[in-house]
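tokens incoming
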């Protein structure tokens, strides 16, 4: 009981941690920038741009959250990127909530399926991004998950992300 009350108090003081995760080049950093409405993270077509996690505070309906943009989850030979991926998984383990981003213009990757299975469905929002380039993601693969279809580059679906994130937050804190 004491531990639970301490964790709740700690979350109120520091904010809920919300990790943005996914494979490289799916739009994680673009999502961070869109949510914050500033260019906080570098966005590039080159995979592996985000090497370390970026953390920013954000308020939704008066509730503080800490949004954490992470490196793309993939196997790589680059030692620096390997460390970024290791740190990304570390952030995932500690997170309260998850925004997992996938590229709708390609079929769901095996690595995506593996990563998504690690996340608790009731604490995860799937962001099906790049819908402006097509949608190769089958809806039945999303069963049980809260999800939003977006084109972050075209500012489509950002308000829906915020709305669904509010739902996740309210369910988490109640």
């Amino acid at each position: 009981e004491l531990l639970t009350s301490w964790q709740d108090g700690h979350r109120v003081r520091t904010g809920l941690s919300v990790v943005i995760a996914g494979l490289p080049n799916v739009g994680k950093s673009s999502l961070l920038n869109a949510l914050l409405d500033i260019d906080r993270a570098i966005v590039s077509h080159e995979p592996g741009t985000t090497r370390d996690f970026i953390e920013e505070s954000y308020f939704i309906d008066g509730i503080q959250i800490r949004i954490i943009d992470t490196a793309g989850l993939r196997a790589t030979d680059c030692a620096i990127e390997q460390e970024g991926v290791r740190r990304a998984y570390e952030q995932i383990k500690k997170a309260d909530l998850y925004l997992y981003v996938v590229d709708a213009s390609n079929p769901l990757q095996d690595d995506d399926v593996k990563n998504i299975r690690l996340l608790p469905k009731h604490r995860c929002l799937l962001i099906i991004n790049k819908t402006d380039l097509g949608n190769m993601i089958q809806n039945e693969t999303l069963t049980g998950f809260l999800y939003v279809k977006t084109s972050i580059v075209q500012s489509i679906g950002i308000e829906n992300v915020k709305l669904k994130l509010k739902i996740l937050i309210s369910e988490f804190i109640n």
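note: The chain is about 35% helix and 20% strand.
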